[in-house]
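Duplicate of #3305? Posting structure anyway:
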């Protein structure tokens, strides 16, 4: 038997890419590939890329440049680009970086073995179609190996919302939900292999309709799986937070009290220009209803500053919304024009104005994040332990609220859930005792 070929996958961007990279690794395992942590000894390098903001795509091109010496030293090395940059730029990637052998978009990962064979035969392999068949049916079933206590599971992909700034509807395509029975099968399989927490993934996950009860119905069915202790989902659009899902936050114990619900802006004018289809007030009322169902829920969000046409007054509305909602965690970005999106055609806010707004918003958000973390001191949380810490005898896990928690202990095993009394709050994590 020939020696296994080595596969190096580098993943950029969102959690769905992390999930996709796992599945690509599995698809190529059936072609004789084993994973390696280093590009230097790889027979194949795959970049799983992100197109959501400018810098992400530029990083891919500079990363490809760094692989040139490897390719020159080893002409048998195959280099592939997957993910949303592959989908958006397609053949142009090969034109710009001729050393790329393979380009594959997110809807075609099940065709990777064929594409790999083509690349091995010395041809350029490109697939950025949106095929009719369900890629999840064709992707190799996850092998039965044991795995860590947390896992991602894609339940829906693509988006029909067409926010004016966003490439997702173009790179990931129209919204498609996977049937609930497939998801349940995959979830049971993960649990058998040691997974205790599953994060359901989708670009617009709360629009999920593969279960007659929607996402809430799926969550309730998953909650009945013995051995599965925690359920999370990300990422959601405010307009798809229906009553059933809000109620689930109050009623389903295994559904964790953490919700990522991006609003992007606090200005009605900007929200309208963004095509978000709701007002700031409607978002705030929604948050109130969610907090009635689950008072301790920790909220997370995404914000864009400097969207075309955003004035100082609009930005102040965003600051006011952040003050009013109070986030435990949030991401904020400078608007970046994406080719092919409606907002890219409009006149842009000056870069230094964007910088100044971003700095102020991030200042406020990190204050809130720190306050939410500090408020945990003295409380008892339940921690799912995921790995040893950096120091001897230390274990690290996540609380219900997704805070990283460090504990000094020799008694805990990976995968256990234990009550921890929080004693300290550091810049990015908590510490406590069992
Ligand atoms: N510019 C800046 N941020 C963006 N996002 C999406 N598209 C853009 C863009 N063109 C942000 C949004 C989204 C998150 C995943 O990325 O805040 O919620
Ligand atoms: Fe992009 Fe999310 Fe808007 Fe869909 S809902 S277009 S993924 S920002």
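Output from current build:
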């Amino acid at each position: 038997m020939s020696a296994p070929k080595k596969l190096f996958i580098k993943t950029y961007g969102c959690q769905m890419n992390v999930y996709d990279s796992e599945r690509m690794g599995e698809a190529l395992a059936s072609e004789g590939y084993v994973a390696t942590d280093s590009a230097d000894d790889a027979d194949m390098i795959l970049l799983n890329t992100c197109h959501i903001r400018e810098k992400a795509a530029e990083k891919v091109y500079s990363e490809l440049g760094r692989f040139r010496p490897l390719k020159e030293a080893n002409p048998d090395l195959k280099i592939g680009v997957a993910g949303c940059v592959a989908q958006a730029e397609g053949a142009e990637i090969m034109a710009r970086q001729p050393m790329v052998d393979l380009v594959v978009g997110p809807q075609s990962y099940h065709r990777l073995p064929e594409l790999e064979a083509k690349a091995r035969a010395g041809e350029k392999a490109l697939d950025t179609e949106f095929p009719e068949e369900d890629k999840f049916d064709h992707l190799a079933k996850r092998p039965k190996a044991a795995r860590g206590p947390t896992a991602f599971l894609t339940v829906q992909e693509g988006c029909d919302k067409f926010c004016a700034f966003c490439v997702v509807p173009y790179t990931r395509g129209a919204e498609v939900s996977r049937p609930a029975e497939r998801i349940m099968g995959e979830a049971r399989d993960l649990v058998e292999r040691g997974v205790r927490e599953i994060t359901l993934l989708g670009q617009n996950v709360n629009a999920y309709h593969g279960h007659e009860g929607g996402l809430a119905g799926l969550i309730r069915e998953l909650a009945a799986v013995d051995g599965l202790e925690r359920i999370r989902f990300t990422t959601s659009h405010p307009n798809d937070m229906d009553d059933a899902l809000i109620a689930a936050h109050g009623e389903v114990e295994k559904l964790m009290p953490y919700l990522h619900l991006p609003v992007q802006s606090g200005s009605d004018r900007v929200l309208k220009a963004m095509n978000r289809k709701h007002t700031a007030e409607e978002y705030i009322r929604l948050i109130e209803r969610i907090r009635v169902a689950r008072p301790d829920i920790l909220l997370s969000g995404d914000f864009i500053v400097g969207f075309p046409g955003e004035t100082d007054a609009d930005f102040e509305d965003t600051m006011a919304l952040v003050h009013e909602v109070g986030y435990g965690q949030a991401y904020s970005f400078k608007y970046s024009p994406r080719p092919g999106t409606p907002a890219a055609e409009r006149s842009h806010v000056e870069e230094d104005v964007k910088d100044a707004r971003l700095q102020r918003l991030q200042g406020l958000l990190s204050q809130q994040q720190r306050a939410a973390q500090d408020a945990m001191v003295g409380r008892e949380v339940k921690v799912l332990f995921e790995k040893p810490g950096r120091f001897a005898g230390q274990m690290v896990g996540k609380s219900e609220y997704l805070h990283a928690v460090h504990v000094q202990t020799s008694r805990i095993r990976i995968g256990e859930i234990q009550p921890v009394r929080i004693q300290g709050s550091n810049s990015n994590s908590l510490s406590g005792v069992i």
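Confirmed duplicate; merging threads. The chain has three domains: 5-127, 137-374, 380-433. The domain at 137-374 is CATH 3.80.30.20 (pyruvate-formate lyase- activating enzyme).
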